[in-house]
Amino acid sequence: MDKLDKLIEEAMKDDDRALLKNTEELGYFALGLQQFRGKLGWVTWLIMAVQIVLFLAGIWCMTKFFAATDALPAVKWGITSSTLLLMAMNLKLSLWPQMQADRILRELKRVELMLLSRKQ
């Protein structure tokens, strides 16, 4: 918690502090697991399933690459393996912007809840 957060907390009333405690910021792993729920959770499940298949296929091609004795099969399996592994990594990294958007939306809802509680 930085200095600004401490100043905000000191300026709050008791009920606002309780509201702040109940809506604390989620950690990295909690945010990641939250992607599997909600309206678009099925998209995350699909992305992860395809990512796992691509990763396993890339590892299988990598074993073929290391087992190849000639140059042409080694190049074929090596390029295929690296392409599959890069595709798997891109799919996994495609979820990070959604995690960031969810963090921002959660904070906006938190502020909205605090403003609504002030009106009452």
TrEMBL record:
<dbReference type="InterPro" id="IPR046659">
    <property type="entry name" value="DUF6768"/>
</dbReference>
<keyword id="KW-0472">Membrane</keyword>
<keyword id="KW-1133">Transmembrane helix</keyword>
<dbReference type="Pfam" id="PF20556">
    <property type="entry name" value="DUF6768"/>
</dbReference>
<feature type="transmembrane region" description="Helical">
    <location>
        <begin position="42"/>
        <end position="68"/>
    </location>
</feature>
<protein>
    <recommendedName>
        <fullName>Holin-X, holin superfamily III</fullName>
    </recommendedName>
</protein>
<keyword id="KW-0812">Transmembrane</keyword>
<feature type="transmembrane region" description="Helical">
    <location>
        <begin position="74"/>
        <end position="93"/>
    </location>
</feature>
